[in-house]
Each structure stands twice: as structure tokens, then as C-alpha cells.
Design brief:
The complex is a heterodimer of chains A (265) and B (283).
Chain A: H1 21-34, H2 41-57, H3 62-69, H4 73-86, E1 92-96, E2 99-102, H5 103-129, H6 132-143, H7 153-183, H8 193-199, H9 201-224, H10 243-262
Antiparallel strand pairs in A: 1-2
Helix pairs in contact in A: 1-5, 1-6, 1-10, 2-5, 2-10, 3-5, 4-5, 6-7, 7-9
Chain B: E1 5-14, E2 24-32, E3 36-41, H1 47-54, E4 67-70, E5 73-74, H2 80-86, E6 87-90, H3 103-113, H4 118-131, H5 147-160, E7 165-169, H6 177-194, E8 197-201, E9 213-218, E10 221-226, H7 228-232, H8 235-240, H9 247-257, H10 269-282
Parallel strand pairs in B: 3-8, 3-9, 6-7, 7-8
Antiparallel strand pairs in B: 1-2, 1-4, 4-5, 9-10
Chain lengths: 265, 283
């Protein structure tokens, strides 16, 4: 059971962990926009340094972040190579039909590579140091303005927290059903595409049914515990801004100011 | 002194949609304030339906004579939430009634629904968690808890809203023996501490030893009711309904049929052991 890391959260207690999830979420989203402010070597250097400091502040092993980058390393390399070969301009070092390696191409490829990697690194910092539940709370906070448009934010929040709460339970159930079907001869790992798709049926049907049963049981339990929609509900878990979030904010503002100063216009 | 009945049920019937036979057929009974009542019966005898009627999860069939009264309040569409404030239910499956993502969140769920202020919740929740002996798990996620622990959390969630009645709907049937005895112990403690009325639906015949009153149900009707010792004397009837009697009753009966005279006044395992030891020393 404990092998499954929901959302890859890794427990720790460095300064990044103490920050409010709302601050981290907003900073991560803004970072993706801010990264496009960079347009010369100095700004890219600043971005890289600031990101690496953020990574170091988590006090986690480098491997965690490598695991974050690994799944999309091919995408990053592919995009960089396209930039390398198809950008024209500047000094041309090598040419063959449409393909060319030029000074612009090299610089662009490096920039794209840095951009991609930094986005992945920063979002890994966020997901690894924040519990899924906290992320759900942060998303709810971000959605709060939508209440003006009559979006049922409280209900969405409850749905999110119940969904997150049942992820491990459903995983558990999936493995149990798989093992039970294996004990009766089901084979989930062999055969062609169609055979495998068919083999999933004895897994999916019981899983659907048990999910529905769980939902009915849970609804009964919630109702008998006095749940009657959102009206008049209070909240037990709240998020609190702390000094650490000020650090987060100041750090981010310094980054933006530096980028604005050093970028070429 | 008049008997103070916290639950009064009169001529209640209930038929599930699409069912030919009523699941509950004209049932009448009372439950005394502060007592422990066990409801036993084979599968499909209507035990769980009864408790869903009591807290309004199901609506009883229309009938002018029928009524359900809890703590002096008659159950109607208007009063159903008042009644749910007085009745806490622990359900069978520990996984499927855990709403919160952590223990503290789950215990607070009932309070959140009742609009209790956060300041008050931060006082009530730790107390309720401590009452069931789960303090060290306050921030634990449900996946890391055993079934018995989850059921204790469910009890804490009920204690937090200060009900008058706690209903165990086969709450121990999915637990291992340790979890079961811990849960029952906690319920017993809470009952003594807060003067709660306990209704326990159970298959576990040994659990009924805790009861002041036993109701035996069959096909939606109450077949017999009374103190455990009275009910368990009806061994033949219970066997016909597919129920067993507690182990010591079984031993007692077998000994009696083997010409060892054991008085009917013996009604617990301990008494039986003592009596047998004395019997031995007399020889």
C-alpha cells in the first residue's frame, strides 16, 4: 500500500515545506509565465541560479528531481534538436539540404533546453513538497472568486478531497481484485493488444461496482453525520500565511525585477 | 419511577421499492434510555433497515398508526435533522464511512456540517480523538490505519457531536478479534462516560453478552425480546432461525443433556466455570 506515492509527495521538513501551498501554487504558475521574460544569457543565468536555489532549499536528494525530468527528457531533447537544426540566421557552421547548424540555432536550442528543464524542476519542487490534500485546498482558494459566477466551489472542493481520499483505497482494491483474478487464472501481462484489453474486463467490472457501492455507503454515512449540502458548513482545516510565504514572495519579486533589469529590449 | 424510553417505535412497516414483501412488518418496540440493546437475526431479517428508519435515512410506509419517536421528538420531514443530531451511527465497512483525508478532518466532519466555529472545533476534535485513544494518529491518513482504528475514529466523530444514542450497524463484523474487542471497549467507555444509549446490530453472539436487552428479528418482525439470559434459553427457537447461542450456553445445554445437573440461574461463562470447579471439589 505505502509503495504508492500519491502525487509523488515526499515527506520532509525544510523551509519549502513550511510554505503555504497557495503561495507555492501561485508562484509555480507565475514562474511559467515569468520564464518567458528571459531573452539573453544573463537572464537565463539568473533564472537557473534562482531555480537551483529553490531546488536546494527543499533539501531533497538530486535523484528526486532527476526522476521528475526523466519521463520527458526525450521531449526536451527532441525540441532542442529541432531548434538546433531548423533555426536559420547568424553564422552557419554546417549545412545539408534544409538542415543547418547556425549560431542562432545553438543558442536557441540551449535556451529551450533550459526553459523546459526549469519548468519541470520548479513544478517538481511544488508537487514533491506539498501534500495532494494541500494542493486541493490551494486550488479551492484559487477558485474562490468563481463563487461570484455561481460556481459551486465548496462542492468542487469536497469532491476533490473525497477523490484524493479514495485514490489509495481504490488502488488497494484494484490490486486485490487483480490478485483474486490471477488466482483464478487471469493473465494481465501477456498477449497482444486485444487480448490484454479483454483481460482487463474482469478487473474493471468489479472495480466499477465496488466504487459505486463505496459511493452509496459513503453518501449514507455522510448524510447520517448531518451533511446537507454546503449551507452553514464551517471548515476545520484552514491554511495560514506565515513568514515563510513572505520569503517566497520576496524571492519571487527579486527574480522578476532582476529579469526585467537584465533583459534586452 | 416510570421507565424512560428514548426510542419508541409503534406499528412501523417498511417496504423497499419493487419488493413484494415488506422488509419491516408492523414492528413495535421501545428502548430504554441509557441501555444497551442488541438486535440479532439472520441475514435479510431487517436489522439494518430498522436503524435506517430510526434516523430517517429511509422513510417508513405511510400509516396513520405508525410512529417513530426519538428523545421525545417524532420523526417527520421537518425533524429529521434534529433526530440525526441525537443519533450517531457507526456503519459496517470502516473504509466507506471515512470522509476526511486525515483522522482529525474526519472527526471534524460532523461538526463542520453543524456550522460549529473553527475555534470550538479545535477544542472538541482533539478531545474526541483522545477519548477513543487515537491521539497519536491525529494526522494519519486512513490508508495507514487498521479497520479497528478506523471504527474508533468513526466513534470519535460521533462523540464530537454529543449524541444521545449511538448505533453500531454491524460495526465490528469486518474486524479482527483485537479490533473488535477494542471497539466494543471504547463504546462501553463512552456509554458509561456520557450516559449514551447503545443499539448494536450484530452477528457476533458474544457481543450480546454486553446487552441489557436483546431483540431477535426474523422476516421483518421481532420474534422475541428480553434480557440476554431469557432470550438464550430459547435455544430451539434460535436454532430454527439459524442463530447460535453463546458458547457457554451451548456447553451448559450439552452438559444438561448428559445428565449433569446445572441450574438455570447460571448465565455467564464465569459462573459456569465457578460452578463446574465447585462440582469437581464436592466429589
Amino acid at each position: 500500500m505505502n509503495k504508492i506515492l500519491i502525487g509523488r509527495y515526499i515527506a520532509g521538513d525544510s523551509i519549502v515545506y513550511k510554505m503555504d501551498p497557495r503561495g507555492k501554487l501561485v508562484a509555480t504558475i507565475l514562474f511559467i509565465f515569468v520564464i518567458f521574460l528571459a531573452n539573453n544569457p544573463a537572464t537565463y543565468a539568473i533564472l537557473t541560479i534562482f531555480s537551483l536555489v529553490a531546488v536546494a532549499a527543499t533539501k531533497l536528494k538530486g535523484k528526486v528531481f532527476w526522476d521528475g525530468v526523466k519521463p520527458i527528457i526525450w521531449l526536451i531533447l527532441f525540441t532542442s534538436l529541432l531548434q538546433l537544426f531548423f533555426t536559420v540566421g547568424g553564422k552557419v557552421y554546417w549545412q545539408w539540404m534544409m538542415l543547418a547548424i547556425s549560431s542562432y540555432g545553438i543558442i536557441n536550442a540551449i535556451y529551450i533546453f533550459i526553459r523546459f528543464t526549469l519548468i519541470v524542476l520548479i513544478s517538481t519542487v511544488m508537487t514533491v513538497t506539498t501534500m495532494p490534500l494541500e494542493i486541493a485546498d490551494a486550488i479551492e482558494w484559487l477558485l474562490t472568486p468563481l463563487k461570484l459566477l455561481k460556481v459551486p466551489v465548496d462542492k468542487i472542493a469536497l469532491v476533490m478531497s473525497i477523490a484524493l481520499r479514495f485514490v489509495p483505497t481504490l488502488f488497494d482494491q484494484t490490486f486485490k481484485i487483480m490478485n483474486a483474478q490471477r488466482a483464478r487464472g487471469a493473465d494481465f501481462n501477456n498477449g497482444g493488444l486485444i487480448t490484454r484489453a479483454k483481460a482487463i474486463t474482469p478487473l474493471l467490472v468489479p472495480l466499477f461496482i465496488s466504487s459505486l457501492e463505496t459511493a452509496i455507503d459513503l453518501a449514507t454515512a455522510m448524510e447520517s453525520r448531518g451533511y446537507r449540502g454546503d449551507q452553514g458548513r464551517t471548515r476545520y482545516r484552514i491554511l495560514q500565511w506565515s513568514l515563510y510565504d513572505l520569503i517566497n514572495l520576496v524571492y519571487f519579486i527579486i527574480l522578476v525585477i532582476l529579469l526585467l533589469i537584465f533583459r534586452t529590449h | 419511577m416510570t421507565i424512560d424510553n428514548i426510542i419508541k417505535i409503534r406499528n412501523v412497516s417498511f417496504t423497499y421499492p419493487d419488493a413484494k414483501e415488506p422488509a419491516i412488518n408492523n414492528v413495535t418496540f421501545d428502548i430504554e434510555r441509557g441501555s444497551w440493546t442488541s438486535i440479532i437475526g439472520h441475514n435479510g431479517s431487517g436489522k439494518s433497515t430498522i436503524i435506517r428508519l430510526i434516523n430517517g435515512l429511509l422513510d417508513a410506509d405511510e400509516n396513520a398508526n405508525s410512529k417513530i419517536e426519538v428523545d421525545g421528538i417524532r420523526l417527520t420531514q421537518k425533524t429529521v435533522w434534529d433526530i440525526r443530531d441525537r443519533v450517531g451511527v457507526v456503519f459496517q465497512n470502516p473504509d466507506n464511512q471515512f470522509v476526511g483525508a486525515t483522522v482529525a478532518d474526519d472527526v471534524a466532519f460532523g461538526l463542520e456540517n453543524r456550522g460549529v466555529s473553527r475555534l470550538e472545533m479545535t477544542k472538541i476534535v482533539p478531545k474526541a480523538i483522545a477519548a477513543v485513544g487515537m491521539s497519536e494518529y491525529a494526522d494519519a491518513e486512513p490508508g495507514s490505519l487498521s479497520g479497528g482504528q478506523k471504527q474508533r475514529v468513526a466513534i470519535a466523530g460521533i462523540i464530537a457531536i454529543k449524541p444521545k444514542i449511538i448505533i453500531l450497524d454491524e460495526a465490528t463484523s469486518m474486524l479482527d478479534p483485537d479490533g473488535r474487542s477494542q471497539v466494543l471497549q471504547v463504546v462501553q467507555q463512552m456509554k458509561d462516560k456520557y450516559g449514551l444509549t447503545v443499539i448494536a446490530i450484530t452477528h457476533d453472539i458474544d457481543e450480546t453478552a454486553l446487552a441489557d436487552q436483546v431483540l431477535v428479528m426474523n422476516d421483518g418482525q421481532i420474534v422475541t425480546q428480553g434480557k440476554p439470559e431469557y432470550v438464550f434459553k430459547k435455544t430451539k427457537l434460535l436454532n430454527e432461525l439459524g442463530l447460535t447461542v453463546p458458547f457457554f450456553q451451548q456447553v451448559k445445554k450439552d452438559l444438561q443433556s448428559n445428565a449433569i445437573n446445572i441450574p438455570d440461574t447460571i448465565n455467564s461463562e464465569k459462573e459456569l466455570i465457578n460452578y463446574l470447579c465447585q462440582l469437581n471439589s464436592k466429589k
